[in-house]
Amino acid sequence: MNSDGPNRDELPKDEDAAPRDTHAAPGDPVAETDLLLARAVAGDRGALAEVRTRAAHDPALLEELAMWQADELRLARVARELDLSADRVELPRTRWFGGSDARAPRVFRAGLGWAVAATIALAWVAQAVVPRDTNRSASVAGISAGFESADDAFDAYLAKAREEGLVHGEVAPPTLLGSRELGNGQGFEVVIIRQVIERRIAPEMYRVAPMGETGRLRPVVIRPRTDLVQ
Amino acid sequence: MVEHPHNTGIDEPAVHALAESRLFSRAAAGDRTAIGEVWRANRRWIAAVLLAHAPRGADVDDLLQEVAATLVSKCHHIRDAASLRGWLRVVAINAARMAARGQAIERKSLRLAAAERRDAADAPAGAEPGGRDDARETLALLERLPALYAEPILLQSTQGLTQRQIADLLDVPETTIETRLARGRRMLRQLVSELEHARAEAPTRRSSAT
């Protein structure tokens, strides 16, 4: 362990057995004021009221509370980074049950999964911006390679999209639309909406406009202007 | 089809606890979809535990992947689904300790890959006062706290867990968590004060040297 800080696994004195006093340094019995401030910064209204009452006689206590709250803000920024980091790590999709290679997720991340996820993403873009030919049936050949379920493919897409910055912010929790019992003990059918917030850049877009004498709707290409005045 | 109005009067925590219990049981039985859901629901606090116990220089991403791999390969051995969360914590701590033993610890701050990647793409350093640099600085300070104190602080402040929830996870009395939080926060306050003091001193030293 490093030399300029305490050993992280080092156990200090038994804090539970120690009495609580009001003027203590770390390692000594915990200060009663610190207990109060810790509760206050965690949002305990009773503790906040107690601090306010005591501050009438000890104004420095409010200043101390402000410092602790500033530390709490620092921790909130750590939380954002930590959550971003955690959300990028998906379960390994290879060597299920009994696999001894702990680095399996890396294999997945660098392997076929990315390509398939990218294919899915590209397919989505194509379907979103180009009007669909309803007479042509969709081909899904190859899409399922490497995935054992649609959930696996979706997870892979999310992981890849986060890496590429396509998915911004939180993916909203599923919204329950409705449910019904299937009968015969088969369980329930649950209908949910899964939402993903994406940011994409498209070279061109389409709008649908009536064309010709019949007024039939046709896609019209909208290309980005290159002479925008800033 | 049953419509679900916004306010159903259902005891949501109880429903959530039941659903979680069912999910854990399915995961322990080897249901892959359930294991995936367990991972997504728990990986953030696991990251906090790793951060508290990992040595300096360890990569939280790598350690998270170790835990994920263990979850996939071993969770069907768990007999009691209710103990899954505690088991995950033990796996995380073991991964952190193995990292401490198995690698030459570099003298650098614990890095979070997400922050690094955005560093490369985003605005110049210092453009976001109180933002990413501040988070890095705080990470470096947290690394100096004993894990005993860093863990409850991280679980409370970064994951929003209550003292009761932290006590359940760590399997210690709630009063112990209360004490650790107070003492840990006091330690963190002193470290921040020292850092700010050193920062205030630095320009003075530079100007006197010239």
Structural summary, described in words:
The complex is a heterodimer of chains A (about 230) and B (about 210). With about 230 residues, chain A is an alpha+beta fold. Chain A is about 40% helix and about 10% strand. Chain A has six helices and four strands, in the order H-H-H-H-H-H-E-E-E-E. In chain A, the strands form two sheets. Chain A has a two-stranded antiparallel sheet. A two-stranded antiparallel ribbon of chain A has the order 3-4. In chain A, helix 1 crosses helix 2, helix 1 crosses helix 3 and helix 5 crosses helix 6. The relative contact order of chain A is 0.06. Chain B is an all-alpha fold. Chain B is built from nine helices and no strands. Chain B starts with 11 loop residues before the first helix and ends with a helix.
From the spread of the alpha carbons, the general shape of chain A counts as elongated
Into which percent range does the helicity of residues of chain A fall?
A: 25-40%
Helix/strand class of chain A: alpha+beta
Number of helices of chain B: 9
Question: What general outline of chain B do the C-alpha atoms trace?
Answer: elongated
Strand percent estimate of chain A: 5-15%
Q: Major β-sheet of chain B, in short?
A: none
Portion of residues in beta strands of chain B equals: under 5%
Largest interface: A-B, 74 and 81 residues
- Arithmetic mean of pLDDT of chain B: 79
Q: How would you name the oligomeric state of the polypeptide chains in this document?
A: heterodimer
Distance between the termini of chain B: 79 Å
Q: Whole-number radius of gyration of chain B?
A: 21 Å
Distance between the termini of chain A: 55 Å
**Helix-strand string of chain A:** HHHHHHEEEE
Share of helical residues of chain B: over 70%
Uncertain spans of chain A: 1-7, 9-27, 95-144
The pLDDT mean of chain A sits at 69
- Find the count of extended strands of chain A (DSSP E, 2+ residues): 4
| Protein structure class of chain B | mainly alpha
